Amino acid sequence: MKNLNVAPFVKWAGGKRQLLSKIKERMPEQYNDYYEPFVGGGAVVLELQPENAVINDINKSLINAYTQIANNPDEFLDAVNMLDNEMWDDGKEYYYSIREHYNDKLMREEFDIELAALFVFINKHCFNGLYRVNGKGLFNVPYNKSRKASVDKKAIVETSKYLRSINIINGDFENACRNAQAGDFVFIDSPYAPLKPTSFESYTKEGFDVESHRRLANLFDELSERGCYCMLTNHNTEFINELYGNKGYSIDVVSVKRMINSDASNRVGEEVIIYNY
Questions:
Q1: In a domain, 75, yes or no
Q2: Measured between alpha carbons, how far is 47 from 17 in angstroms, rounded to an integer?
């Protein structure tokens, strides 16, 4: 029985909330275990709430937040509420002080409850929920002028219960799928290929480059050979169609709103949903 109070606790660029209905109508009717090697904001897994699931992301801060919310929801809520309650009259100044504190802890690799609270706070108060770091790995997204509460207590408590029942890991996408077997469902929402081939942007300081997309396409082929049900979403670009076309996969083009674009006239685009069944 799905818990309607379970919900994503961060905004995430390229998140799948607006595509949920299109994704669900294309899913296999039955599957065994669920794998999501690029969980991001978790819109899909937290909507489906599969009993046996493995979620992964390369972003250590993001996975730390999932882990802390799963294991220490009360302490997490106390920490994030303290950040909300202490916001000064000058929200911009406060945000940048919190961002600096977050980056200091990040450089010291202090992946704890406080870092999780700082991560969620800056996610809710930065521009469009974008996670972007500079060459040194420091978070550098500007303030969005919001003074709203960072979390919903009931959602955190209920989401924590679900997250405790699944496997949360941090690492490379290939490693996350190493145990996927025939009959398992693998949902792949990787960092997007750029609309302009010359503008691959960094998601973590390691980035997700052309070679990473080629490696992912090879994994999709390998998982298909294992008998896994695989679904992948990405921008509808020539590069992505070259990687996945002419292999017998279904490739459906769907319209999306791109809220990350500063020019409202460019906020409508196309994505592809690729699946092997």
A1: yes
A2: 9
